[in-house]
Write a structure and sequence with these properties.
alpha+beta, 2 domains, 5-stranded mixed sheet, 33% helix
Length: 223
């Protein structure tokens, strides 16, 4: 048996056998679709795919309470994205049931997420072997870059959260400074008598014309 390896991060190359091109395109589409879903869900939930234990009754992640910082680190968020990308991608490909004419075997999916200032990079290792007429082709690397300024948004919110550690009220000047500096729109809403919800919207981060949103909550002492 001949085994040929292909690692692709962009368009399909002419050297990819015809029977494997459809498989590659199918997986690539799944990677892109699920990446967008996971990234937007993580933003909506303040760095988590599902609301964390430390959240409001409505599921908004709490970043500040009683002088303590509960904001997730970039590493934690990267791990969260990677974990759910692996899960969602497996279900998206549906064990390749649509490719009844091919013998396809797959290995474990491994995603490495990197949060940059102006994009999120997902390196997906998805080992797939396509057997056909005594030969085999293996494809495994799928790279996808999302034009979402998650690093800038995270740094901006972290700045606000750190300032909060020395205040027991909203630092309005900090919010104004960071929103103007990084071209972000910030909305603040009352949740209850001592909880405020912050929503960061980034018009510079759009996929299919949908604006990227990041939400979290802070709890303040009422004197």
């Amino acid at each position: 048996m001949i085994l040929i390896y292909f690692s692709y991060t962009g368009v399909i190359k002419q050297s990819l056998p015809p029977e494997a091109q459809g498989v590659y395109s199918f997986v690539r589409e799944c990677v892109e679709k699920e990446a967008v879903k996971v990234i937007y869900e993580v933003g909506k939930n303040g760095g988590y795919f599902f609301p964390p234990n430390k959240s409001t009754d409505s599921g908004v992640a709490i970043y500040y309470e009683n002088g303590k910082d509960y904001m997730p680190s970039k590493k934690q968020i990267e791990d969260e994205i990677s974990f759910f990308m692996n899960k969602k991608l497996f279900f998206c490909t549906k064990n390749f049931v649509d490719f009844t004419n091919l013998e396809i075997t797959q290995g474990d999916i491994g995603t490495k997420t990197t949060i940059m200032e102006d994009e999120v990079i997902l390196d997906v290792d998805y080992p797939i072997t396509i057997n056909n007429q005594g030969g085999a082709t293996r494809i495994n690397d799928f790279r996808f870059n999302l034009p979402v300024r998650m690093g800038i948004i995270h740094d901006s919110i972290n700045y606000i959260t750190q300032e909060q550690l020395s205040h027991e009220s909203i630092c309005a000047s900090c919010l104004l400074e960071i929103s103007e500096k990084n071209d972000l729109y910030v909305e603040i809403m009352d949740y209850d008598e001592n909880t405020m919800i912050f929503i960061f919207r980034d018009e510079n981060s759009k996929i299919n014309e949908v604006v990227f949103v990041w939400a979290f909550a802070n709890k303040y002492k009422i004197e």
